[in-house]
Amino acid sequence: MVSLVNIFCYNTLKFLEGYFKTMQLLDGKSLADRVQENVIREVGVLKQSRNIVPGLAVILIGDDPASHAYVKMKAKACEKVGFYSITHHMPESISQEEIIATIEMMNTNPRIDGILVQLPLPKHIDSDAILEVINPKKDVDGFHPYNVGRLVTGLDAFVACTPLGVMKLFDTYNIELQGKDVCVVGASNIVGKPMASLLLNANATVTITHIFTQDLKAHTLAADIVIVGVGVPGLIKADMVKEGAIVIDIGINRLENGSLAGDVDFAAVSPKCSYITPVPGGVGPMTIAMLLENTLKSAKKRA
Ligand code: GUN
């Protein structure tokens, strides 16, 4: 009799737990703040023990307002954690040779541990050629083919900051990836491809969808985790994710009314999710936090 009562109570509790189970926000803002505090502490130690101040050089070309805003945020974050940082702002008309000369100067500058070329670059510049000039040991964006190759083979590498930030969120919230079906929407070199490599290295089953994918919904609906970064506001709708899914929104889109929106229709999708990132305050702050960590990692390896 007692055991029957126990079973009844247990089942009732389980039912109520399921009924009231709520979606949890993946709070990138507060995690990024914690990462920053840790970087500040480590900069102090590095300065005291080896007289090293981590240094980041940012190369910004042209007048794209979004690129200017991102670079400003990166410089501000560097200042906050006590890094040395310089921004080389060059006009839209700059030649490829002049950009390469600046990168080569930064490659040999002993105060610089990280070099970042803000993308996209003007049409007359060969971005791949530019990224390949960066010393892979200072490639804190993880875009150099040397680091991309090391990531794909599962070796230690500088990894692109946005996907690295997503992995940090998974780790912090104890989200298991092994054996999970993950759908990555977007196959860019900056986000989608390195994201897929990281997930594969963590033993997830990964599907990458892109502009030529015939039935996006079929892929997102089948996934335990959906990660989207394509720059299309509200692309992912409620009927495209399964109940209890984890949804990571990498999109940051400025709407006509001036507000920010992600690639996920947050209001409609979030009630179905077990976890979801907000925009703003989700992946965005993590990107900058990972840039700080990568620059610190490089500085620690300084000869
Ligand atoms: N443009 C958009 N995202 C990024 C990024 O993470 N790094 C650089 N260098 N450029 C970008």
Q: What structural class is derived from the secondary structure elements?
A: alpha/beta
Any idea what the shape is? globular
Q: Give the helix tally.
A: 11
The overall pLDDT, averaged over residues, is 95
Terminal Cα separation, in Å? 72 Å
Rg estimate, integer Å: 21 Å
Strand content: 15-25%
Total domain units = 2
Largest sheet: 6 strands, parallel
The CATH top-level class label of the largest domain: Alpha Beta
Count of beta strands: 11
Bound molecules: guanine
Along the chain, the helix and strand elements come as: HEHEHEHEHHHEHEHEEEEHEH
Report on this model:
With 303 residues, the chain is α/β, with parallel strands linked by helices. The protein folds into 2 domains: 93 residues, Rossmann fold (3-Layer(aba) Sandwich), CATH 3.40.50; 126 residues, 3-Layer(aba) Sandwich (Rossmann fold). The protein has 11 helices and 11 strands. The strands form 3 sheets. It has a 6-stranded parallel β-sheet with strand order 1-11-8-7-5-6. Strands 3-2-4 form a 3-stranded parallel β-sheet, with helices on both faces. Strands 9-10 form a two-stranded antiparallel ribbon. Helix 8 links the parallel strand 5 and strand 6. Helix 2 packs parallel to helix 11 and helix 7 crosses helix 11. The longest helix is centred in the first third of the chain and has 23 residues. The mean pLDDT is 95. Bound molecules: guanine. The site of guanine (GUN) has 9 residues, from strand 4 and helix 7.
